[in-house]
Amino acid sequence: MLENSKQELLADLYTLRAGFSVISQEKDKRARTVAPFDKKRAEYEEYIRQNAKKREKNLAEISKKEGALSDAREEAKSCAAGYLWAGIGLFLLVLAIYAGVIVGLYFTVVKLMKPMVVLMITNSSEGMGKSIGFFFLGILIFAVVIGAFIGIIKEDIKGGFEFALDKFDDYSIYKDSKKDSKKLCSSLPREIASMRDMTPLFDKKEQTAKGEISKLDVERKTAERVHIAAADSVYRALLDNFSGVLDPRDWGDIDYIIYTLETRRADSLKEALQQTDMERRKNEIVQAIGVAAQYISATISRGFASLQNSMNDSFRRLSAQIQHNAEMQHRALASQNAAIASLSERVSALNKPADLGYALQAKADTSSTKLLEDVHYMRTLAENAEVRRRNNL
Q: What pLDDT was estimated at residue 1?
């Protein structure tokens, strides 16, 4: 009687592990389902990043061209002003020289040479001699006046001529610079306006990509809902059927519990749990579960000759409970016809005891610790989906 009870307990524990395996498989299927959506979303996100870089580059180029336009306008003004002042300076210099010459001629001709002319007209020898003397004296005074004047302003004359010559030498450069400045002043405003027109296009592309991402997120949630709902149906069935057999807090240790029972290290669930606690206190539970997982993997591969009947009964009970929970999920997804159809297909597969056995074999090499991680992951998704459903998101 005790042995039969132990066989039934092992059958229930293996069935519980099969349920974990089914949920883990749903996690794998969900990952494959959402992968194309995630890939497409990543492509749109990269597109948005590249579009933002192009937008920033466009704005930087606009700023650069605006600076170049400002410089070109200043250069055009500077070239014209410089050449104008050079011409004015040269004009003033020449005017000053002419003024000096006129002053010298005035004193020479009017003040000195006029008496000479008068004497020459009278034709007197004395007047002739004096006139010749006045003539040479006038030339001498003129030379002295002009020489003194030039001596005083010679540096200014030299600098003025050099400045003027430099400006005339730069005339061709000035013409080219003025030509380039005018060309830039004409073309840059058009280029800047054209680039400014592109800014709204970048914004539009970004909004379009974000809109596509929003659509993808909705489609992704719809596609993954089938797997989440199927996993949730299985989890609730496990709670209903096996929480009285093994406390859910101990589900992660199920491999070691099965191992102690099958290797006769424990004759009851209570003894198996006591040994599990002992391993945990020694901080050796992880290693113990690893050893147990290898043993169970080999056992599953060999089959369950002595447990088969008990396991078939346990599988049938679990499948019936899964079907019942799936009907509850149908009501929750009443507005999602496609989701209901897909969920029906998924649950129909899970409703067969043989498929539970296939799942158990498929995940034979996965430890109960890892299986429970997958279970908790899918439970979190189911809870989040339920929150969204209640909030009509």
A: 37
